[in-house]
Design brief:
64 residues; 2 helices; 0% strand
Length: 64
């Protein structure tokens, strides 16, 4: 149990004393960038999915 307590104390010390956190404004701009990139990626994947679905529907309708 002492090892676990020591681990948590060392982790807390590392997070609070040794890590340099970016300013809040930088985090906000990074968050917006990740949000926009995720939305663009989701739209592209959705369009690809719709395209493949249409191709497969066409293929299966021709094979009947």
């Amino acid at each position: 149990m002492e090892k676990v307590t020591s681990l948590f104390k060392a982790s807390w010390d590392e997070v609070t004393q040794h890590i340099t956190w970016p300013p809040f404004k930088d985090l906000q701009s990074s968050s917006w960038l990740v949000l926009i990139a995720s939305l663009i990626f989701a739209i592209v994947v959705g369009l690809m999915d719709a395209g493949f679905q249409n191709l497969l529907d066409l293929f299966y309708s021709l094979s009947k």
